[in-house]
């Protein structure tokens, strides 16, 4: 398995534009997490899914953020409209859903909103 | 609610000196705790988990339920240990929900001075 795959690796966009980040989890994993990493706030959990169902989205900062998982092999995180303060590295991670097992991370998407 | 606190954003030590990265947690149940590491330009990866009681790359961590701590220790720091270290807790959002939320601390950047 190639691991968790995220795209794009880098995204530069203008304020007000829509941004879509993509994630392909490891095959067979049933839990998927979206995190945002910044210098100030560290690694924040935005939302996580279990068996494609959103379990907790309380970390999503605003209504401008939305996430979907239409099937077990794909998830998106969308920001519409984007703002400069959304600039961060966004990570996707997946696990087999058991409590004491490892979460595998993607390479991350570095988003810059100008 | 579950929370992980890493009080130090940055820790600098000399090569060969002992290292201790602090982690405290808040969780009503019995916690499952992990340390993840992110080397420069690489994805986050699991370093160790408390249930395994193992030593990885010379690092150990002991769960102290009385102090609600899971500090990461290494007796002699090496230059290649320089990285970002995250403490994480896996717990259920709701009792019986059947899925586990993985919450991270804000991270500590370890810098080992040659």
**Number of DSSP E strands of chain B:** 11
The description of the largest β-sheet of chain A is:
7 strands, mixed
Radius of gyration of chain B: 14 Å
Number of helices of chain B: 0
For the record, give the distance between the C-alpha atoms at the N and C termini of chain B, rounded to a whole number: 41 Å
Secondary structure: helix percent of chain B: under 10%
Topology:
The complex is a heterodimer of chains A (about 110) and B (about 110).
Chain A: E1 5-7, E2 10-13, E3 19-24, E4 31-38, E5 42-50, E6 53-56, E7 65-71, E8 74-79, E9 88-95, E10 104-105, E11 109-113
Chain B: E1 3-5, E2 10-14, E3 19-21, E4 24-26, E5 32-38, E6 45-49, E7 60-61, E8 72-74, E9 83-92, E10 100-104, E11 108-113
Parallel strand pairs in B: 2-11
Antiparallel strand pairs in B: 1-4, 3-8, 5-6, 5-9, 7-8, 9-10, 9-11
Short description:
Chain A is mainly β.
Descriptive report:
The complex is a heterodimer of chains A (114) and B (114). With 114 residues, chain A is mainly β. Chain A is 0% helix and 54% strand. The radius of gyration of chain A is 13 Å and the shape is globular. Chain A starts with a strand and ends with a strand. In chain A, 39% of the residues are buried. Chain B has no helices and eleven strands. The model of chain B has no long low-confidence stretch (mean pLDDT 90). At the A-B interface, strand 4, strand 5 and strand 9 of A face strand 6, strand 9 and strand 10 of B.
